[in-house]
Every structure is written in C-alpha cells, then in structure tokens.
Amino acid sequence: MSGSTIATGSIAFIGFGEAARAFLEGWRAQPGFSARVAAYDIKTDSPDSDVRAAKRADYARANVMGASSAPEAVAGADVVFSVVTADQAHEAAMAALPGLANGALFLDCDSCAPQTKERTAKEVDAAGARYVDVAVMAPVHPRLHRTPLLISGMHAKDAAGALAALDMSATIHDGPVGSSSAIKMIRSIMMKGLEALVCECVLAGRKAGVIETVLDSLDDTYPGFDWKKRSAYMLERVMTHGVRRAAEMREVTLTVDLLGLDGAMSRASVGWQQAIGDLGLRSSPDEAADYRVLADRILGRLDPEAD
Length: 307
Fold this sequence. Notes:
Blueprint: E1 10-14, H1 18-28, E2 36-40, H2 49-62, E3 65-66, H3 70-74, E4 79-82, H4 89-96, E5 105-108, H5 114-126, E6 130-136, E7 149-152, H6 156-165, E8 170-172, H7 179-208, H8 211-221, H9 227-258, H10 264-277, H11 285-288, H12 291-302
Parallel strand pairs: 1-2, 1-4, 2-3, 4-5, 5-6, 7-8
Antiparallel strand pairs: 6-7
Helix pairs in contact: 4-5, 7-8, 7-9, 7-10, 7-12, 9-10, 9-12
C-alpha cells in the first residue's frame, strides 16, 4: 500500500498505552483519517480481572478492534506500531511475527538498546516485513501524533512516506537500524538521569528543611532554568511513568556497557525511577504544579512512619 493511502488502510498497535492512544487521538482529529485500527496489549492477558477489564475498556473508548493476541492484531495491517515497555520490545515483536503481512512496515517505537533493535530487525525482515528503528524524541503530550520521531534503517524512506500520510513528524537519520535508538538512549542518560538526580535532591532537601534555599541557589548558578517549576514537572513524571522509565534506563545502561564503558550513572538512575514509580502515586493538576506537595506525598509513602 502506498504511503498516501495509509490513513485509509489498516494500522495495528502492539501495546495500547499512553503513546498509542495519543497517536490515535491526533490522527482522528485530522480530516480524511478512516483507517481500520486494531490493538493488542499484554494486559489483556493479566491474571487480574480488573486489569483485563480496564484494558478492554481502553479499546472500547478508543473505538479500536481489541485483539486477543499479537498475531491477530497485526493480521492484514499495512503499518504496525510497537509501543511497549523497553523490557518487552523484542518479545512483543517475536509474538507478532506469525501475523505480519508480507511487506508490512514494523515501526519499533520502543525505548531499547540499539543492539536489541538490530537483533529484532533481522528477524522481522527475515519474516518478510520491513523493520524500522523509531525513536520517540519527546513526551507524546501535548503534541500527540506530531511528537517528533527519529527513524533509521534500510526501510526508513518507506516509513517516512507512511508517517507523512498520517501527518506525523518524522525525521530520517541517515544510519542503520539502531542509530536512532542510540541517539535516544544516550540522550536519556541526561534526561532520565537528571530526573533521578532531581528526585534525590528535592526529597533530601525537603526532608532536611532546606530545599527552597537549595533550589534558589541552583537558579543563581543556572539562571533561567526555573528549578522549582522543573522539579515539580520531573517529580510528577517519575511518579506517573517511573516504572516505564526504569525499564528504559536499564536499556540505556546496557547501551553504555556494550559500548565498552561503565554505565554506572544510568544504572543508579534506575533506582529512583523504579522506587517512585512503584508507589503508584498520581497527582491532580494543582498538586503537580507544586514540588513541595509532590515531595511530601512521595516521602510519606517512602517513609510512612516519619514525621
């Protein structure tokens, strides 16, 4: 199918979380989008009936065909978006393999090590589909389907046409599979690592009763960064997405280690991302704007007997 007709063809998602729903919301706001959309998420296999029901409800709200397996979801699809957690990326692709149509574009949007993507690409291409390394370079909100993507690999030009037909914002990185992900992984050393540092700094400062002075001092050293506003944003992101970010940072650590370097900083970042993400905390818009409120909620769960 040509890129110009993707928006009226068939699209599948492996994984149906925030990214998939954001892309779909953006597409459906565009005139002319009438593609058939199917999805499969591993949560529909959860032993917890509430988790299964919640994911089925997600399918219904989004008006997508909720499949019972990955092969069922991708059967006949022109474009497949893999948007799962980093630790499930290769397994998700392998699960979908029996259902992939010959020539289907398999867009691996997962945040995993370039070496993992190289391995997956060989198996997807050998099955007759077209594997594309996709790095999602920003949060999917508020830009939805217009979130910047970096794509690479031998099928990147074909993917660029399909993504343009979906009004998506994709840039080709001239390199093999894994090169886009290398950029994303190495960037995450700083982005997710900074989040972990902010968590440790703000929580320690709040507990010691000195955090306002600390952040004011940082604003003097790095004028214009607005550490109080950024701290609130980063704390909320880790609260909401820490588990997923921890999985990504494990892949970042692997990336650095396989380059022959010591991924110690990335490895340490996993700890705060996982610990805070595991708390399952969510915040209201008012709470999310105040780093002190967020810090107190996290501290209250990390050390419930304190105070």
